[in-house]
Specification:
This protein is mainly beta. Helix content is about 5%, strand content about 60%. The protein is built from 4 helices and 37 strands. The chain has a 22-stranded antiparallel barrel. The chain has a 5-stranded mixed β-sheet with strand order 3-8-9-6-7. A two-stranded antiparallel ribbon has the order 1-2. The two termini are about 45 Å apart. Pfam families: Plug, TonB_dep_Rec_b-barrel. This is TonB-dependent receptor plug domain-containing protein.
């Protein structure tokens, strides 16, 4: 089955929209040459799915794989890159977890209180460093506004689900503060379907606060604090290393802080910022009441950034420079191997970044270079170049190219599991060179864009197996993994009350070639995918239909010996959501997930939820 679902109405970004991920400083979309999707707060609220990752499914070039029901491990791949090749920022804090293979724990990120999410596709390491091979996702939560406001929501529904969120903010031209919280609890389903048939539930709590103060007209001090705590039950492996209906559960705790001070001089043309962040994560695994193991990580980062604008109205230049220092600490402890996997390791990195932008009429050019000096492996230099030209008739051409890197994870370098796995401290960072070129068109009520992209991945870190010792490990591959594809998206507003949007992605990914064999298609990456979004808004009521098509994918059945390749069937995952005003500041909300009751798997052998319904109430008061 191949659907002709051609991304959300947020796919095509307004030329004047400021984006924060495409340069070291916010720039207008018309001054960027990269492929970018912005999912705004209105879209997030209209679709009303509780986890942000389910809205990312609507973005071109993005594939999502969840290993079971809501709360299970969830991976995002951009343009066919690996799951740890997407760098995620939440309110400016780099949130990838060194304690879980450098991936971001998407299952811990609720959509509540998110004002926008930017998805920047293609290598971005020259701007943001390691893990940005496939792209960058930058999430911004709600800001304080003038006056006072209170907001909240509560809902209940299928699988014993209860969900509540809310917050309050107060602000003025001198500063403000906003606090938010989100709580989600579901009994879930049995993701494996074995003999016990116990349900795998999920519970999460998120607390956050953002505060800022402007002691002088051209200066600002700010602080962001965010805490998440979740418990995810899942079916793991029995003593024979076979998947089974177990009582495994993972407790994930994360606390993040970011502080900054900004000042502008020369009438705002020269900007300075000092910043620092600290993130700590704990991942604790149990089988019932029995402690198995845990991995903890700490990341501290500080730096200085300065940017200056100069030139004339016809030729405007922007130069931004930054220096960053980052240190990571990783701790692993276990009981099941009597401490055999324990480790205490750390590594540091100092980075120097230079970013340049030129705007001349309809032409915008950009170039970036970054030097990462690592104490644990070879230093890296990355680069990026982009351009966009906008014609007066509404047509646009754009292109970008860059080099990205992803550092080896702590487990890949130093991990050890007795009798099964040993790390490789000699690993070198993965690196990728990719490019894209596209064309778009915009008129008052219609926008469209088509982009061709291609990337080659070198030094890919792959699994190895020694048949003499029965030990597995990792090594850098000698060949190249190749990714290429097409991204197409549109949005339209044919009527004042109707908004339409859609996307389609064709993706061809091939693993590094082994001598004497043909290239193999990479796992969990659909060749065809797409989405459709439609919202009918009549002020007193609105309804939104969102659908995501995922084509056939390749996966591996590790329960077989030797492991065999399987095909995951295609599916359509649709959501119908709506709201009705009750009067005053209250709204009645409703949502049906998996509208067509699709039976599907994102990861082989892990069942997912069928059709489900949810209803609730929402309140908004103030500015």
């Amino acid at each position: 089955m191949i659907a002709v679902f051609l991304l959300s109405a947020a796919a095509i970004v307004d030329d004047g929209t400021l984006v924060v991920s495409a340069a070291r400083e916010p720039v207008a979309y018309s001054e960027t040459g990269g492929a970018l999707t912005v999912i705004d707060g209105a879209t997030i609220e209209a679709v009303a799915l509780p986890q942000l990752v389910d809205l990312l499914r609507l973005s071109p070039g993005v594939s999502v794989a969840r290993s079971g029901p809501t709360g299970a491990q969830t991976q995002v791949r951009i343009r066919g890159a690996e799951a740890n090749h997407t760098l995620v920022f939440v309110d400016g804090i780099a949130a990838n977890d060194p304690a879980t293979s450098g991936e971001f724990r998407w299952e811990t990120l609720p959509s509540d209180g998110i004002a926008r999410a930017e998805v920047l596709r293609g290598p971005q390491s020259a701007l943001w460093g390691s893990e940005a091979i496939g792209g960058v996702v930058s999430v911004t939560t709600a800001e304080s506004t003038d006056g006072t406001r209170i907001f909240g929501s509560a809902e209940a529904g299928s699988f014993g689900t209860v969900h509540a969120a809310g917050g309050a903010g107060v602000g003025s031209d001198k500063g403000g503060i906003i606090v938010q919280s989100s709580w989600y609890d579901t009994k879930g389903i049995d993701s494996f379907g074995g003999g016990i048939k116990e349900r795998d539930g999920y519970e999460s709590l998120m607390l956050s606060a953002k505060a800022s103060v402007r002691p002088i007209e051209n200066g600002e001090l700010g602080l962001v604090v965010r805490h998440t705590n979740s418990l995810s039950e899942f079916d793991g492996y029995n003593s024979f290393y076979m998947r089974d209906d177990t009582l495994d559960a993972t407790r994930i705790r994360s606390t993040a802080l970011r502080g900054f001070g900004r000042v502008e001089t020369l009438d705002g043309r020269w900007r300075h910022e000092l910043f620092g962040s600290y993130v700590t994560t704990d991942n604790i695994n149990r089988d019932g009441d029995t402690f198995l193991n845990r991995t903890d990580a700490e990341v501290f980062e500080t730096g200085y950034q300065t940017g200056i604008d100069f030139g004339s109205e016809a030729f405007r230049h922007r130069v931004t420079g930054a220096i960053e220092y980052r240190t990571q600490r990783f701790v692993a402890d276990d009981a099941e191997y009597f401490g055999g996997t324990n480790q205490r390791v750390s590594r540091d990195r100092t980075s120097f970044v230079l970013d340049y932008g030129l705007s001349a009429g309809g032409l915008a050019l950009g170039a970036s270079v970054r030097r990462d000096e690592n104490d644990a492996f070879k230093d890296a230099t990355t680069w990026r170049a982009s351009g966009r030209y906008t014609l007066e008739n509404g047509f646009t051409v754009h292109a970008s190219a860059g080099k990205g890197v992803t550092d080896p994870t702590f487990t890949e370098m130093f991990g050890f599991f007795p009798g099964s796995f040993v790390g490789n401290p000699s690993l070198t960072p993965e690196r990728s060179i990719g490019w894209d070129v596209g064309a778009g068109y915009r008129t008052g009520a219609f926008s469209a864009d088509v982009t061709w992209f291609q990337a080659d991945l070198e030094n890919e870190i792959i699994g190895t197996y020694d048949s003499a010792t029965f030990m597995s490990g990792v090594a850098n591959a000698t060949g190249k993994s190749k990714r290429k594809g097409i991204e197409a998206s549109f949005d339209a507003k044919p009527l004042g009350w109707l908004t339409l949007g859609g996307s389609y992605t064709w993706l061809d990914t091939k693993e590094a070639q082994v001598a004497g064999t043909a290239r193999v298609r990479e796992a969990r990456r659909p060749r065809h995918s797409g989405s459709l979004l439609a919202t009918a808004d009549f002020d007193v009521a609105s309804v939104t239909f969102a659908a995501n098509y995922v084509g056939n994918r390749r996966d591996t059945d590790f329960d077989s010996f030797p492991a065999r390749i399987v095909t995951l069937k295609d599916y359509v995952l649709a959501t119908l959501s709506g709201r009705v005003k009750l009067g005053g500041d209250f709204e009645l909300t409703g949502r049906i997930e998996n509208l067509f009751d699709a039976t599907y798997e994102d990861a082989y052998g892990y069942q997912t939820q069928g059709i489900s319904a949810f209803g609730g109430i929402r309140v908004k008061w103030g500015g």
